[in-house]
């Protein structure tokens, strides 16, 4: 994949008080390049419980290509479903949203599910939703 259809990609996972922070970090790193930096921010839940937010923003083309290559590990049926849902997964601000399974990522697999949020700011000129959907579709079809 020579061109990168995103300005940047944000990855984020919450680590709740009942979870091991190292395991959540490991799950998130399954999608990230080795040298990418991971931030950790402490927060508090509604009942005062600890929540750590692990996040990173990947802006370099090679980093974004790495994330996209990881999405290539999705099952063909999951990719087909994702392509069918692009209208709902790209917003009017040309951002693409996807959630991935934190448990599967911890086990070294990439699957759709809950726990890891991927948000990509799509490069689209002119910056319209329809144009952004085209760019994401092209990127996903070449995985």
Automatic annotation (TrEMBL):
<protein>
    <recommendedName>
        <fullName>Exosome subunit</fullName>
    </recommendedName>
</protein>
<dbReference type="InterPro" id="IPR022803">
    <property type="entry name" value="Ribosomal_uL5_dom_sf"/>
</dbReference>
<dbReference type="Pfam" id="PF01877">
    <property type="entry name" value="RNA_binding"/>
</dbReference>
<dbReference type="InterPro" id="IPR002739">
    <property type="entry name" value="PAB1135-like"/>
</dbReference>
